[in-house]
Specification:
Length: 166
């Protein structure tokens, strides 16, 4: 049997996904997320790759239980997301914490004192440089709006970026 190229192998899968997506209430551009989950996912995509003091090296454990990382993620969500997006996004994240990290996500209410508008305004901004920070972040810091928007677009648009040509 002659080897097939990746595009040839993916065409039947693409057709199947298209048919399945028409049967369920999901978005065509990202079949896995409710649109209200995109905002938090855009934030988590950035912070999941940034090292923080207290990280264990386990992606889900860190995003779900490291107080410093969580304060930062919650602060960014409060800065860039609506209340509906926050609810939907952290509901999804909580499921990921349980399923993949085998831990419970520490709720935002645990950090209320660190998440007041005044406290968030005092947090430094991490600017997008094209490279992720390599040194541990030692205090809560908000990603810049530019960095958030780039990550958000990656979450929303990434499934459409794969194209096959003949």
């Amino acid at each position: 049997m002659a080897p097939q190229n990746v595009c040839t192998m993916l065409r039947p899968l693409s057709l199947l996904l298209l048919v399945l997506s028409s049967l369920s209430p999901v978005r065509a551009d990202n079949a896995w997320l409710d649109p209200n989950q995109d905002c938090v996912e855009g934030i988590v995509e950035v912070y999941g790759e940034i090292p923080f003091d207290g990280d264990t090296g386990d992606y889900y454990v860190d995003l779900c239980t490291n107080p410093l990382k969580l304060i930062t993620v919650y602060a960014a969500a409060l800065t860039y997301c609506t209340a509906d997006e926050i609810d939907a996004g952290f509901k999804l994240r909580g499921g990921y914490c349980s399923q993949y990290g085998l831990v419970e996500q520490v709720p935002m209410s645990e950090f209320a004192a660190n998440l007041t508008p005044e406290a968030i305004k005092q947090m430094p901004i991490i600017e997008y440089t094209g490279e992720e920070p390599t040194e541990n972040i030692t205090a809560p810091a908000i990603i810049s709006q530019e960095w958030y928007e780039l990550s958000f677009l990656t979450v929303v648009e990434s499934p459409g970026n794969f194209t096959c040509s003949r």
